[in-house]
Design brief:
Layout lengths: L1 H19 L11 H11 L18 H7 L1 H6 L1 H10 L10 H16 L3 E2 L5 E8 L9 E9 L4 E9 L8 E2 L3 E4 L2 E4 L8 E5 L5 E13 L5 E7 L4 E4 L19 E2 L2 E10 L3 E7 L6 E3 L2 E3 L6
Antiparallel strand pairs: 1-2, 2-3, 3-4, 5-14, 6-7, 8-9, 9-14, 10-11, 10-13, 12-13, 15-16
Helix pairs in contact: 3-6
Length: 297
């Protein structure tokens, strides 16, 4: 009997050993919001033109955040992750500091691209990393890969300046030239445009420089009309000939010898454009209205 019990114990022990040696299940892939947080922790956050502040602050940021709470909450998983990473619990209304922390994360998460690449479950991203302090004017352009478990591999790092934020004209704007009005997309370096000399006289001068920038998501432009029928649409930070910005204008303000009779802020997607004529003022006529240039140094 003792011999039989010993054999049974050996058999059961062997079975237990076989069970314990079963392979460990592979970890489940993390959701994209968690992969983005892994990138934040290991590399940094994206540096971008925040439409809440650029080129002009549109309202108090807390007010904007409260307006966007329903939009933030529509993606329940992302919103839950934001609260979790900020140590917040949904129990009533968030305080101002709590709300801003959540809102900042929501904006940063939207701005970090993650695109499927290579092996299944691996994502790629290229973006400019935000400096640790706002006083710094240089960042890093990083190219990386992150797998489904959150392992981040940096492929390259190169120096990069601040994001090129658009403060220019919409692509349907016409520019006054000696050959007639031309679309801003059809004028090039060396072409002649009308500008103003130091004495205020109208002269023809060649274009020294042009610029074109893709606008960020949420960018808005200012469309204003003058009493004499002239009108133009530009980013709120684009300068008038006397140094104001289009975003600072209001009905009744004088612009280029006429008065603003209508003004509205419109959403805009695409590219904005600017040019710099030769001469002492750098001004030119867009839509028949004398404006300044953002490219003037």
């Amino acid at each position: 009997m003792r011999w039989l019990l010993a054999v049974l114990a050996l058999v059961l022990g062997a079975c237990g050993a076989a069970v314990s040696a079963s392979p460990t299940p592979a970890p489940s892939p993390l959701p994209l919001v968690e992969l983005r947080y892994r990138v934040f922790e290991q590399v940094g956050r994206p540096w971008y033109c925040d439409p809440d502040f650029f080129p002009l602050a549109r309202a108090d940021e807390n007010d904007l955040a409260r307006q966007r709470i329903p939009e933030m909450q529509r993606d329940a998983d992302t919103y839950a992750a934001i609260l979790r990473h900020n140590g917040l619990v949904v129990s009533g209304t968030l305080g101002d500091d709590q709300l801003l922390a959540a809102y900042h994360d929501w904006k940063d998460l939207q701005r970090l691209p993650l695109d499927p690449t290579g092996p299944s479950g691996v994502y790629g991203s290229t973006f400019v990393v935000r400096p640790e302090t706002l006083s710094k004017t240089a960042g890093e352009r990083v190219e990386l890969r992150v797998d489904g478990t959150g392992n981040v591999t940096v492929l390259s790092r190169t120096a990069a300046g601040p994001p090129n934020c658009p403060i220019c004209l919409v692509d349907t704007t016409t520019i006054d030239t000696p050959a007639g009005a031309k679309r801003v997309t059809d004028v090039h370096v060396g072409d002649l445009v009308w500008t103003v000399d130091a004495g205020g006289g109208r002269i023809a001068a060649p274009i020294l420089e042009t610029g074109s920038v893709e606008v960020p998501v949420g960018h808005e432009v200012i469309h204003f009309a003058l009493a004499d029928g002239r009108r133009v649409t530009a980013s709120p930070g684009h300068p008038t000939a006397d140094g104001r910005t289009t975003g600072s204008l209001a009905v009744g303000h004088a612009v280029d010898g006429s008065a603003v009779i209508a003004i509205e802020r419109l959403p805009y997607r695409g590219r904005t454009h600017d040019l710099l004529p030769a001469g002492p003022t750098g001004t030119y006529w867009a839509g028949g209205i004398l404006l300044g240039s953002t490219l003037r140094r």
